[in-house]
Amino acid sequence: MLGAWLIAAAVVGFQQVGIWENSETLWRHALRLDPHNTIALNSLGNYYVDTGQPGLAAPLYQDAATRRPGFANPHYNLGILALRDNRLAAAERHFRHTLVADPNYARAAAQLGTLARRQGNPALAERFLRDAVRLDPGDIAARFDLGQVLQDLGRLDAAIAAFQDVLRLDPGYVRARFKLAVLYHQTGLPNDAAREYQAVLRMQPANHQAWYNYGLLLRATGHADDARQAFREALRLNPDDPDYRQAAGE
User: For residue 205, what are the domain limits?
Assistant: First the structure.
């Protein structure tokens, strides 16, 4: 309570004397009033990350997390910094600390799911990502990652349902449409696959992989001339790909 009062007092003081230049000034002033203010420590760290100075942010997050272990945000922010530096073990540790501090922190669960997938543990990844989606049904990225994990596990119908959920939330999510097109093709639904490839190409006409895959679908369904045109477009967009060149007959 005292920390919140000090921040409010700092803001009023800045407005009165005209020295509130930016967020750094605000949070540094709050820390001069109370060096143990974990909200100010975390917020100043956020300022440094936002301004491209993550090296200055890390010790502030660590200080906040040490002083107040039950404050989830600095633990999560430390995890993000570790992830950016490809320090996966440290990132996992910080995200787990986040969930200890706040079991309902959906993004921490999602990050642990993504990490588990990168580490070759799709079953654990599914558990974390399902938790993330349960905690935040609107987390499109978590739903997409869940679809990828289900695809990794060979549960293609469940993966299709996950990517469909993504598109219900965001019809313009191109990566989900591309994934659906591939899965529809794999599961013997060529008309649905064609519809999704066409949608992808309307949104991303320079997507050479989509042109190539669409060509494969057209060729498999007996549309040889249309397939050749699709292959040629893929080759035009990416002339160095030998598969495109061979498919186009050049």
Answer: 177-250
